[in-house]
Amino acid sequence: MGSNPTRASTKFPIIMKRDKHNDFVGRRMKKSSIYRKTFARALQQIDLALLVREMREDARFTQAELARKVGTTQSVIARLEDAEYAGHSLTMLERIATACGVALRLRAEKKPHFDREVALA
After folding, report:
1. For the chain, which end, N or C, has fewer CB atoms within 10 Å of the first or last residue's CB respectively?
2. Whole-angstrom distance, CA of residue 6 vs CA of residue 77
3. Binning pLDDT at 50, 70 and 90, where does residue 18 land?
4. 1 found inside a domain
C-alpha cells in the first residue's frame, strides 16, 4: 500500500514547531541568567527522575516492589520518577540505589582545582 499523505504532511509542522521552540529557548538563554538557571534545574530534575526509573527498571522491579524494599509507598516512587518533582533527597536516592544493586557516586567540582568524588551506595 502507499504512504499515508496525512501522516507525511504532519512531520513538517512538527519540525517547524521544534525549530521555533529551540530558537526561542536559545534567545531566552542568552538574555536571562534566571532563565538559564531555571532551565538547568529543570534538566537536573528530569535526569534524577530518569535515574530513579532506570535503576528500578534495570533491577526489574515494579514501583510497588521497589517501594517495599526501601520502606516507602508506590506513590512516593511514582513521584520520584516524575520529572516535575523537585524534592529528591540524597538519602532516598541511596536507599533506591542499594535496593537496585547500583553503586552511586557523588562528585563535587569547582574549577580550576577542586574535584572530589565519593562512593555512596
Report:
1. N
2. 40
3. low
4. no
Instruction: Give the chain's domain count.
Output: 1
Report the mean per-residue pLDDT for the chain. Answer: 86
Is 113 contained in some domain?
Answer: yes
Cα gap 25→27, rounded to integer Å? 5
In a domain, 2, yes or no: no
* 6 within domain boundaries: no
Give the CATH number of the domain where residue 112 resides.
Answer: 1.10.260.40
* pLDDT (tens digit per residue) in 82-98: 999 999 999 999 999 99
The predicted pLDDT at position 89 comes to 94
| DSSP states along the chain | ----HHHHHHHHHHHHHHHHHHHHHHHHHHH-HHHHHHHHHHHHHHHHHHHHHHHHHHTT--HHHHHHHHTS-HHHHHHHT-TT-----HHHHHHHHHHHT---EEEEEETTTEEEEEE--
SS (H, E, C) 56-71: HHHCCCCHHHHHHHHC
